Every structure is written in C-alpha cells, then in structure tokens.
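I am still getting used to backbone structure tokens and would like to learn alongside you. Would you supply a protein for us yourself, any chain you care to pick? Start from the sequence, derive the backbone structure tokens from it, and show both lines together. Go ahead whenever you are ready, and we will take it from there.
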Amino acid sequence: MGLIKKYCAKYRELILYVVFGVLTTLVNWVSYWLLADLLHVDYMAATFIAQVLSILFAYVTNRRWVFESKVRGVKGVALEMAKFFGARGASLVLDLAAMYLGVTLLRIDDKLMKLISNGIIIAANYVFSKLFVFKKQGPQP
C-alpha cells in the first residue's frame, strides 16, 4: 500500500491530468453527439462548439486541481487564461483540421475520426499546459 501511495504522490499531476482529461473528453464527445446527432448541427460547427465547451471545462479543472496554479490578481489570471486559451486555440485548429481531413477528404466515420483526433489533442494539450501555461516560476511561497 505504501508503494501505491508513493507512486500516486510522485505522479499526482499526471494522474489528475488523465482523470480530468477523460472528463474533458467526455464533455467534448457528449457535446458533439448532442449537437451533431440530436440537433443535426453540421459536424464542423458541432466540433467547434464542443471544443469551446471542453476548453472552458479544462481551464477550470487544470488551473485548480491538476497544476494548482498559484497565479493571483486580475492581470496574472488574465495572462494565464490568455496562454491557456491560446494553446487550446491551437488544439481547436488541430481538431478542425483533423476532422476535415478525416471526414471530408478521407471519408472516415465522424465518430471514429473524433476519437482519433481527441487522442492527438490530449497529448498536445498536456505539453502545452505543462511547458507554457502553468509553468512553475521558481520557488513558491
């Protein structure tokens, strides 16, 4: 049991990123499904809206629980949000490009392509968040 606690403590950030990444992906998929299948919104518009909703969810969870941001004040939080949304904006472009390439050009089923695209995006988002957005700045008080 002690070994499990040790590894959980050592890899806490990564474990939480995976947990909240799964939840963020669920927000993305459920939003996409509701929009595309139930409301018959075009798949590109549904992809865009679902991605925006999942980005908002991800910012809150990543800031609070995964990377435990210590940034305070309007200016600091605004800068952090700008970095996060900028990085996720790159993910949005990647998602839209993958969906267009896969669905429109290669004729892959949109649900399968959404799954493939999300796998790529999850990995890219961790790197963006870890290295650029929630980067630790020296010793914390």
Remarks:
- The mean pLDDT is 89.
- The chain is about 80% helix and 0% strand.
- The helical segments are 2-10, 12-38, 43-66, 74-105, 110-133.
- The longest helix spans residues 74-105.
